[in-house]
Amino acid sequence: MIKKRKYVYVCRNLLFFSAVFILSACKPSGHQQTQQNKSNTQLQQQFQQWKAKQDPKLLADYYQFMSQYLKNPPSLMELTTTRNSMPERCYSKRFAIPPRRYWKNVVSSLQLVEKLNRNEYFKRYTITAVYRSPELNKCINGAEKSKHLYHYAVDFHVLDPKETVESDRNLLVKKMCQFWKVEGKHFKMGLGVYGNNRYHIDTQAYRTWGKDFKSTSSVCLKN
Hints:
Blueprint: H1 2-26, H2 30-52, H3 56-67, H4 76-80, H5 107-118, E1 125-129, H6 134-139, E2 154-158, H7 166-187, E3 190-195, E4 198-202, E5 207-209
Parallel strand pairs: 3-5
Antiparallel strand pairs: 1-2, 2-4, 3-4
Organism: Acinetobacter rongchengensis
Signal peptide: 1-24
Keywords: Signal
């Protein structure tokens, strides 16, 4: 009887520590969370400083123009800020409003992202890049014909699967690729799959690519 109790006690402890290990692996550490919060605060401050130097009417006109085409418009900060990874020397160039002649270019891409969200391919997401100014593109050595230069593309980060487990992230990739294969031609959908729940969508041509921006690296074209 004593041996049996000891066995149960050991098993419970093993289960407890296993659970703690799994949960700690799925969540960012306290240090990582603190660094992320600090980075977000700094970015918000930089955005507010940039915004204060802009023409208020131009900002309002741009946001109103974009909002009329969307059911749930992104924030002005999302629409005017490039938050993708870049050298620190380029930080001051990551805020920009596109020329008026480009404003409507990205509407269909944003609507497609909304459609995926509405159809529950993912529940929560944040936009990390829309328009990229020539100055920023040069600073980060971006592609000369990048769709972001002409306000055609949307980069976004899906939040939910990353907060759970890797299998959920892989499932999302499969679902995104399946959508691209079935409906991509209709939408002239360009789908970039960068890993870690980061994607690019534009509606300029039916194609796909991966982390190195080449079609050969896209998981959508692998068996």
